Amino acid sequence: MFALPLTLKTALRFSRGKKRGGMVSLISLFSTLGISLGVAVLIVGLSAMNGFERELVNRVLGVVPHGEIIPEQPMQIETNLLVNRIEASDGVVAAAPYVSMTGLVENGIHLQTIQIKGIDTDLESKISALPKFISDNAWNSLQPDKNQIILGAGAARSIGAKVGQSVTIIIPNSSADLKLQQPKRIRLQIIGLIELGGLIDHSLGLIPLEDAQSYLGKGQEITGVGLKLSDPFQARTQVKKAAENTRLSLHYNSWINQYGFMYNDIQMIRGIMYLAMVLVMAVACFNIVSTLVVAVKEKSTDIAILRTLGAKNRFILSIFIWYGLISGFIGTFIGALIGIAAALYLTNVINALEAMLGVEFLSADIYFVDFLPSELHLLDVFLVFTTSIVLSLVASLYPANRAIKLEPAKILSGQ
């Protein structure tokens, strides 16, 4: 059977001793609460950052092209030839041509600016997870020459349109000599909605590639080619190689230019949050110093008796280190339990608060998600737990060192 070390047993008796004053108990309580609060908040904060990172990967990197290769001028080229050259490049998983234009979607008196993208659904599904976020099986129903559009759910709500209803899109129009003419107005039926739950919902509409080319009157010209890469975080290098592999004069772009700031912000906030909460925990942990200093004074007679019985400095030192660690462990353990529970149910709690207060904390018009995501990582819990225990250990060293400097003879003689 496992037996506790004698130093730990002594520390437990000291921590429950009758002589423990009200002030010591109060300081110890605030120390424990401070540690618990810091640990819980840090676990919840790191879980929220993990959630944002997950949604960035799933809802942005999973949907938008990892890279784009764009001709200097809208080009008329054998699409299959261009796609094959790009896909032959190292790091490129798949490629899909597209036609992109900015337009207005109109429903009665309501107007909304959107990016209208003409796509080949078969090729686009190879580079994007967008079909998973489209309602009514509309992805498979999107066909050319049928005047159809898949509209972002946010854009549809802003103009009061629903699936099955027809809306008007207004797109730029120019003559052969590039002079602007009266915009084209095209009537399209909404066959499905993009339901990503974020900014893309408010800014995107999808139509067949052939229809987009027809509306612009540009024949078989394409605006660019979207790429899916084996490693999105090496996008700049891999997209550059793919562009060079086409042996054509092309521009190239990557998701890092458009959305990289989101990833960088998440990592920066994670670091700042960790540092701030560690400082909060450090302040709470160093309240242990006050607790132990008073405890050393109150237990000075007990220490003197232990020394006369032959206790070595290491024994006395271990007692008060254990004493401090007990307080730190209790606070850390309670905070970890609270933090884990809060992180697991954070999204549901915030959604309930939004419904109760009638407030939207994350607006889909601004952020790439309209809810507060959370994903608990056991590594984060371990890191926070370990940090808190180490801080408690450091805070225990000074009072423990004072305890071994007490002189038994003076204490027992009452001097």
TrEMBL record:
Signal peptide: none annotated. GO terms for biological process: lipoprotein localization to outer membrane; lipoprotein transport. The keyword ATP-binding does not apply. GO terms for cellular component: plasma membrane protein complex. It comes from the Bacteria. Residues 275-408 form the ABC3 transporter permease C-terminal domain. The keyword Membrane applies. Residues 28-241 form the MacB-like periplasmic core domain. InterPro entries: ABC3_permease_C, Lipoprotein-release_system, LolCE_TM, LolE_gammaproteobact, MacB_PCD. Keywords: Cell membrane, Lipoprotein, Membrane, Transmembrane, Transmembrane helix, Transport. It is found in: Cell membrane. The chain crosses the membrane at residues 21-49, 272-295, 315-346, 381-400. It is a multi-pass membrane protein. Belongs to the ABC-4 integral membrane protein family. LolC/E subfamily. This is Lipoprotein-releasing system permease protein. It comes from Thorsellia anophelis DSM 18579. The lineage of its organism: Bacteria, Pseudomonadati, Pseudomonadota, Gammaproteobacteria, Enterobacterales.
